[in-house]
Amino acid sequence: MIRFADWGMRRELAQIWQICFEEPKRPAGYFLNNYFRPENSLVYQIGGKTAAAVYLLPASVVSRHGTAQAHYIYAAATLPQYRSRGFMAALLAAAALVGAQRGDQYSVVLPATKELYPFYQKSEYQPFFQARMLTVPMEKLCTMAETGVIGKAALTVPLLNDLRREKLEHRVGSVLWSDEAFAFAVGMGGVYGDRLVTSLTGGRPAYALCRRLNEDTVAVLELMAEEATFPDLAANLIQQMPAAQYQFRLSTDSAFPAGESETVPFGMIKPIGGAALDAVTPETGAPYLGLSLD
């Protein structure tokens, strides 16, 4: 039976999270205590026990006519003993129905691995988003930061999300988030040790959401900066997250930092409720997902 989750199920949902993602209590606890909403949560139950769960986080997609309401499929998980029975496929179908009923026009997902893309294609998701992957050694980033100034800037979530929205609101197909979702993404990243590095240059903000992969490498999961603001941001990044190399994950049209890069698939989309894919398909450039809670 598929149903909405309820507040009393959080302990059970936390156990599913921990088992399926092989994580400690803290990530599940942070989500379930800070961003869980029953109306955004579907579960598959057998004999009163939850076998699988999926969350539909509210988002929007830039369309040719403004923005379209959407949801992001998050933390989809099925307990090992219930896998290969079609439970997750059924939950994804139910999510599409629930989303359409509340006005969502698109469902977005970032498969955890490239091997999962075919699974989601069976549920009518299509590869859609791309990211530009670029590795920059410390020496090169230092050169880019030569004119940069290190300094702390008290930048609010609304201000940073306004910057993100400004950068993406004309890139058809890209995903936008509310301030609440942005704050949750940053907070959830903090659970995993991520750091939000910010700078302010001539009144213009910039940010980099970073994760240390190992002693030598820092991943920049999302970067929003301009030519004029990048040196200050780079200087703060080096000061706060020193590493031998930096792996940047960027939108395909991002020019900063410059360098030879690789474009990779980074997420899928499914029109729902009678929406058309061509309404969010850009004529040039790839849609950007980013800030994807991966």
Explain this structure to me?
This protein folds into two domains: 2-128 and 266-279, 3-Layer(aba) Sandwich (Aminopeptidase); 131-263, 3-Layer(aba) Sandwich (Aminopeptidase), CATH 3.40.630.30. The chain has helices at residues 10-21, 25-34, 87-101, 117-122, 138-144, 157-168, 179-191, 230-240, and strands at residues 2-4, 41-46, 49-63, 66-78, 106-109, 126-127, 130-137, 175-176, 195-201, 204-212, 217-224, 245-250, 262-265, 268-271. The relative contact order is 0.17. The protein has 294 residues and is α+β, with helices and mostly antiparallel strands. The radius of gyration is 20 Å and the shape is globular. The strands form two sheets. Strands 1, 2, 3, 4, 5, 6, 8 and 14 form an eight-stranded mixed sheet that branches. It has a six-stranded mixed sheet with strand order 9-10-11-12-7-13, sandwiched between helices. It is built from eight helices and 14 strands.
Distance, first to last CA: 28 Å
Provide the structure class.
alpha+beta
Whole-number total of structural domains = 2
CATH topology of the largest domain: Aminopeptidase
Portion in strands: 25-35%
What series of H and E elements makes up the topology?
Answer: EHHEEEHEHEEHHEHEEEHEEE
From the spread of the alpha carbons, the general shape counts as globular
CATH level 4 superfamily of the largest domain: Gcn5-related N-acetyltransferase (GNAT)
| Radius of gyration, in angstroms, nearest whole number | 20 Å
Describe the largest sheet. Answer: 8 strands, mixed
Based on DSSP secondary structure assignment, what is the total number of beta strands? 14
- What is the share of helical residues? 25-40%
On the 0 to 100 scale, the average pLDDT is 96
- Architecture of the largest domain, CATH level 2? 3-Layer(aba) Sandwich
Low-confidence stretches: none
